[in-house]
Amino acid sequence: MPDLENLKKQAKLILRWHRERHYPVAAQIRALMPRFLNMPDSEILAASFKLSDAQEMVARQHGFDSWQALKTGLSTTSRKVKSSPSKATIVGAEPQLFVADIKRSCEFFCKKLGFSLVFSYGDPPYYAQVGRDAARLNLRCVEGPVIESAVRDREELLSASMTVAAADEIKLLFLEFQSAGVTFHQRLKKQPWGAKNFVVKDPDGNLLLFAGAAN
Predict the structure, then answer these.
(1) pLDDT at 84
(2) What is the DSSP string of 194-214?
(3) Degrees (nearest 5) of the Cα angle 202, 133, 135?
(4) pTM to 2 decimal places
(5) Can you tell me the distance from the alpha carbon of 116 to that of 129, in angstroms, rounded to the nearest whole number?
(6) In contact, 183 and 200? CB cutoff 8 Å
(7) What is the pLDDT of residues 153-176, one digit of tens each?
(8) Torsion angles phi and psi, residue 137, rounded to 5
(9) Domains of the chain (ranges, CATH numbers)
(10) What sign for the dihedral angle of Cα 141, 142, 144, 145?
(11) How distant, in Å, are the alpha carbons of 108, 116, 158, 169, 181 from that of 211?
């Protein structure tokens, strides 16, 4: 469970980054704040941005519509858990994909797979993050392939696995990607263990598994 004091610090840090014209934060603001959706980085960094905006952004990062809703949610959750948990809880994972061209990869994920750019860092960019719903993928630029394409395909070495919430959504997702002209390593298939899945190949040969319940 996130700590409210730490979230306050995160909001203040985002505000400071905006005031200091820290370009990576512009992409994060655009991805999370609807009123900045169609604005370029330079306009976002020049626009009015208050602590309340930064707090709303932090709330949206954690699945809430507003800062007040986040505080209410934390208060409700805190009454259900012990003040001193016996073990840490991992609340997310972000697979890292190795790519040759950050710009090309971001365009693929955003235009073909429906992801949004969370941030891009470097000039030229060498690191970026894309997200769709609760999924986050980190993209790291490397000079050459980390795994040979033939080995990856033969052994079906996955770079990331993502799941949908309901059985009918996996077919919808497959049809969405098919309409976008995505290259499939494996088309939609029902598996013996009770799942339906398909595998997408990105421009660098990374294999991405998308799965859902069969019924």
Answers:
(1) 57
(2) TEEEEEEE-TT--EEEEEEE-
(3) 50
(4) 0.61
(5) 9
(6) yes
(7) 889 899 999 999 888 899 999 999
(8) -125, 130
(9) 4-78 (no CATH), 96-141 (3.10.180.10), 149-213 (3.30.720.110)
(10) negative
(11) 20, 20, 13, 9, 19
